[in-house]
Amino acid sequence: MATSPTKPATAGGFVPPHLGLTTVALALASFMQVLDLTIANVSLPAITGNLGGSGSQATWVITSFAVSNAIALPLTGFLTRRFGERKLFMWATAAFSVASLLCGLAGSMGTLVGARALQGFVAGPMYPITQALMISVYPREKRGQAIALLAMVTVVAPIAGPILGGWITDNYSWEWIFLINVPIGLFCSFVVGRQLKGRPERLEKPKMDYVGLATLVLGVGALQLVLDLGNEKDWFASTEIVVLSITAVIALAVFLIWELTERDPIVNLRLFRHRNFTSGTIAMVLAYSAFFSVGLLVPLWLQRNLGYTAIWAGFATAPIGVLPILLTPLVGKYAMRFDLRMVASAAFVVMALTSFLRAGFNLDVDFRHVAEVQLIQGLGVALFFMPILTILLSDLEPHEIAAGSGLATFVRTLGGSFAASLTTWGWGQRSTLHHAQLTAHIDAYDPAMQQTVAQLGQGDVQRGAMMLDGMIAQQATQIGFNEIFHLLGILFLVVIAFVWLAKPPFTAKGGPGAAAGGH
Questions:
Q1: CB 126 within 8 A of CB 92
Q2: Could you tell me which of 487, 494, 485 has the C-alpha nearest to residue 355?
Q3: CA angle, 345 as apex, 342 and 351 as ends, to 5°?
Q4: pLDDT per residue as tens digits for the range 410-459
Q5: Bigger pLDDT: 218 or 144?
Q6: Euclidean distance between CA atoms 472 and 433, whole angstroms
Q7: Is residue 335 part of a domain?
Q8: What tens digit of pLDDT does each residue of 45-100 get?
Q9: Which domain range does residue 271 map to?
Q10: Mean pLDDT, the chain, whole residue set
Q11: For residues 395 and 413, what is the distance between their CA atoms, to the nearest angstrom?
Q12: Do 479 and 360 form a contact (C-beta atoms < 8 A)?
């Protein structure tokens, strides 16, 4: 296809007939995929109530998507070389629509978790391929803005998830949080397929690294099972948890050794020889894990502790998206004029501050206070993704950018999944501990206590005792929530140290089709 003389040629020499339409379709597909990491968060109580699941099963609705997504991500490089980026995007996005349909039609928790796992798996290649295609169709001087657009999608989608999920759940039914993906996915697949028809791609028949794939799936899967089932099974008192832990350690050890010595590894761990990629990826994983935890815990806390409905929990968390929407385009345009380490550090200081503010919350906190803290955090979120993405890609060779994007997305997604399990477990553990500590000071034979219990139950002692225990449980849960957020605040500050391990310049080495894996 000839390049229109009115359009600037990209570094790769190919411009789609309608660049704007292509951009919308690519960004919309990425938005849809990232959205599904969090859209189910506020709907979990409705889903478990409707399908009769337990709290631990509810967490699996989130973690099954995230883990299978993380397992599929490293396959992106292999699949790209085998089928090409255009076809891979089309088929992955169409398959995502089908998996979303299965989620919406699920009649049991087991079926829903299985459909979510399938949804996460086919979504694996979508974000790295979207990033590769987006950068490859834009001229080199506008690549920073293309990265900023995807960064905004990455930021806004997890924020929009709880709001959209809450609104749909309260006004329609939880099934529609998945069913809305079907027409969107089919639209994106069709548009990108048509617009990028004729885009030059070099196909290969790479050898599949079966040992790497098998050890990756076994190691990550076993580790996630340990995290999700540990609390329920009393951790290492359970033979099942011990066996899973040993399996995870052995499989991941074999995976690391094999991938570092294999000639054509499924995950190119040699990318970590680059200083900026290593420090940027570590910063991204830690910060995204903490950010993901905030997005999971706040809606759950609002509903469990403060009695908010799903939609009001969404409204309370909504202000976090205001500043990213307004500022991310400006960050993409002007951030390169500053030291990106300073920009990222400012982001993490703001994120830490808001975490410490939440650590001071109590059961009497009002809607306005919650919303204001969310709004402040939005400033940190707006300054977070674009600088870190630019830093971690900055010292990669042109042919390594697609693989680097996939690897960074893989560990970031895995970090978010583990964070979901660890923070919910930690919250439960601390709540149980504080409940025991608070009840230890209650003397059932104290006349004053007996009178209080009788008054609570309006003469019914048993009812009063249950009400008192509920009040204590609420306070214990609140203390646990505060402690988790204090820890998250410290983690955001720790991330700053890794940012400053990176060294300028932070301009990508992108050559022709750099982001498209050298095609």
A1: yes
A2: 485
A3: 145
A4: 888 778 777 877 888 888 888 888 778 777 777 666 676 666 766 666 66
A5: 218
A6: 12
A7: yes
A8: 788 777 776 666 777 787 788 778 777 877 777 788 778 888 899 999 999 999 99
A9: 19-208+266-432+476-516
A10: 81
A11: 22
A12: no
Neighbours of 441 (CB within 10 A): 6
**pLDDT computed for residue 239 by the predictor:** 86
d(CA 84, CA 201): 6
2, pLDDT greater than 70: no
Q: Give the count of alpha carbons within 13 A of 312, CB side only.
A: 12
Pull the structure tokens for residue 53: 């699941």
Instruction: Let me know whether 242 and 279 are in one domain.
Output: no
- Which pLDDT belongs to residue 247? 94
Quote the DSSP letter at residue 504: S
135 contacts 514 by C-beta, under 8 angstroms? yes
What are 102-143's pLDDT values in tens digits? Answer: 998 888 888 888 999 999 899 888 888 887 788 777 776 676
Structure-token pair, residue 385? 């993704």
292 and 409 belong to one structural domain: yes
Q: Into how many domains does the chain fold?
A: 2
Write down the number of H helices and E strands in the chain. Answer: 21, 0
Q: Report helix, strand or coil for 350.
A: helix
- pLDDT per position as a tens digit, 246-255: 999 999 999 9
How long a stretch of residues is the chain? 519
Considering the domain architecture, whether residues 31 and 161 belong to the same structural domain is answered as yes
- Record the tokens describing residue 297, joined without a space: 């815990």
Q: Give the position of tokens 């599949």.
A: 208
My answer on whether 251 and 276 are in the same domain is no
Q: Which residues of 326-344 are buried (b: 16+ CB within 10 A; e: fewer)?
A: ebbbebbeebbeeebbebb
Which residues fall within 8 angstroms of residue 462, CB to CB, at 6 or more apart?
none
505 pLDDT above the threshold of 60: yes
Helix crossing, 401-439 with 461-499: angle to 10°?
A: 150
Q: Which two tokens stand for residue 165?
A: 């999920």
CA distance 422 to 230: 10
State whether 252 and 396 are in the same domain: no
Interatomic CA distance for residues 317 and 320, integer angstroms: 6
- Provide the CA 482 distance to its chain's centre, in angstroms: 22
The Cα–Cα gap between 64 and 316 comes to 27
> Do the beta carbons of residue 352 and residue 295 sit within 8 Å?
no
The two structure tokens encoding residue 99 = 């998996």
Q: Which residues contact residue 25 at a Cβ distance below 8 angstroms, ignoring those fewer than 6 apart?
A: 187, 188, 191, 192, 195
Q: Kindly state the tokens that stand for 275.
A: 């200083």
Report whether 158 contacts 33 (CB < 8 A): no
Is 381 a member of any domain? yes
Long-range contacts of 1-6 (CB under 8 A, 24+ apart): 1/198
pLDDT tens digit sequence for 355-405: 999 998 888 889 999 999 999 999 998 888 888 888 888 887 766 776 787
